[in-house]
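Hi,

Apologies if this is the wrong queue. I'm a grad student, and the batch job for Flavin reductase (DIM6/NTAB) family NADH-FMN oxidoreductase RutF from Novosphingobium kunmingense produced an output file that my downstream script rejects. I'm not sure whether the problem is my script or the file. Here is the sequence I used:
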Amino acid sequence: MTLVRFQGFGATSLEAEVSGDEHDPAILLVHGAGQTRAVWSVVVEGLVQAGRRVINLDLRGHGGSDWPESGAYDLDAHVGDLRAVLAQLGSRPVVVAATLGGWIAALALETDAANLAAGLVLVDMPVGADPETAKRIGERLRQQPSQGDARWDPRAVAHLDIEVVRQRLLRAAPALVLPTQVVRGGIGWVGQAASSIEFDALLPNAEVVEVEDADLLVVTDRTEAFLGRLLDFLERKQPRSAAEFRAGSDARTLRDAMGCFATGVTIVTACDAQGTPIGLTANSFTSVSLDPPLLLVCIANTAGTAPILREASHFGVNVLQTSQQPASNRFAGKGEDRFAATPWTPGETGVPLLDGSLVSFECRRHAVHDGGDHFILVGKVVRAAFEPRRDPLLYFRGKYRRLHFT
Ligand SMILES: Cc1cc2nc3c(=O)[nH]c(=O)nc-3n(C[C@H](O)[C@H](O)[C@H](O)COP(=O)(O)O)c2cc1C
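Support response: The file is valid. Your script probably expects a header line. Output copied below for reference.
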């Protein structure tokens, strides 16, 4: 996560938290009245895990953004801010905005919607209300406990004429020519069905979703349900572009494709002619046959240990557990004396077996096959000593992982 400052409307500077990979499709989050960006914390996590880049913005007068001394918190100042932020982003985001944020986003996208954003999600956005309901909503929002160090300038949530807002929203709706999701369920829905339905009907490309059982706000009361609906919308309207390898493409892309297969991690060991232990980290391990008992690993022809492994009469395959990640790095890296820093014992066939492995296979060389820039080393299992109670070290998409059960 990094903090970024955007130039807003006038001399106002706005703060945002940016998370996720810069190449992933962007989502701009705009919080509502009586909140700061902290309200989105769980949503941010879910979006990043789903492969999105998230820009989580504080509105002026909220959190880390400027609190203008002049008290310029009218809707047009906010709209100017958001248009300025959208113009500074490298790609068109899907804008996800709640309550007051929804007003700002809808009005900001009234002009040039499709050029500024890839989609719009309006959450619990009230469209007009009788003054009594508006007052009640305002009071409840102001009573909300603040999240973390969430703070806002009280002037920022003062007097907005909801009837004026209603008229402006109804005027803006037909111009919002981008994929839109309207999510209701919180207080924004209460007592304003008529104007909301009118607004929804004017949206050119919208789907309306109702989330049940929210008390005040969908985002805070029904976070997981909201996230599920949001991700469904994003998968359909802002699909992540699939990467593609074709014969002749660069090896890096193929490696990324192969990395989609989750594996364990092994260290393959043997002794050279002088009886000195050698070994390297390999995740190309596969069980091959039960009868006879065979397994294989693929070894790069260019590996320093390749000539020894190719010739060795016996070799060991040590399947690593979570605490052996340092050993995995050591046996994949250069320079360090791999065996000096790793406790090991010779097996019955003399091959080095690493202490504490999940399982150590001792193998006799069965066959060596050509495999392009690797060779396929097939071993006949002579003995397997294993420890059933440890968790495996995993490798997926170029990173170590652990088992995670929810
Ligand atoms: C998780 C992981 C899996 C690896 N899998 C293999 C493999 O299956 N085959 C291989 O030849 N190299 C593999 N490598 C790379 C070797 O471990 C690395 O190139 C090592 O430095 C080779 O050592 P050497 O040159 O001393 O033989 C892997 C590395 C890592 C980190």
